Amino acid sequence: MPKPARPLPARLEDLPNVGPRVAADFRRLGIGAPDEIRGRDPYMLYHDLCRATHSLHDPCMLDTFIAVVRYVDGGPAKPWWHYTAERKRVYPGNRGRSRNLSTSRK
Questions:
Q1: Residue 84 belongs to a domain
Q2: How many domains does the chain have?
Q3: 12-49, pLDDT tens digit by residue?
Q4: 55: closest CA among 100, 102, 106?
Q5: Is 69 within a domain?
Q6: E strands of 30-98, at which residues?
Q7: CB-CB neighbours of 73 under 10 Å
Q8: 26, 29, 36, 37 — which has fewest CB within 10 A?
Q9: Are 78 and 68 contacting, i.e. CB atoms less than 8 angstroms apart?
């Protein structure tokens, strides 16, 4: 049986692990309210953010997306770094810092 939807705050910044910069990244992806995160795939959010900004973001951003999506979908509030080991298992890709994709060599 699915967990009942928890009441969510009106502002993205009021979610655990979301400050002004993370909220701006969600808005860049067309997400303006916490309830718009329900059921989203955090790995696709990260992929979409990298495509939208033409840069590989620090993988900690993916950890943050995982933490936020899990919370919105009914999980407990956990710090983003709780999801680092999972991300490394599932998405071993980008291990470096952010870099601009438009100037990167292939």
A1: yes
A2: 1
A3: 999 999 999 999 999 999 999 999 999 999 999 999 99
A4: 100
A5: yes
A6: 55-56
A7: 16
A8: 36
A9: no
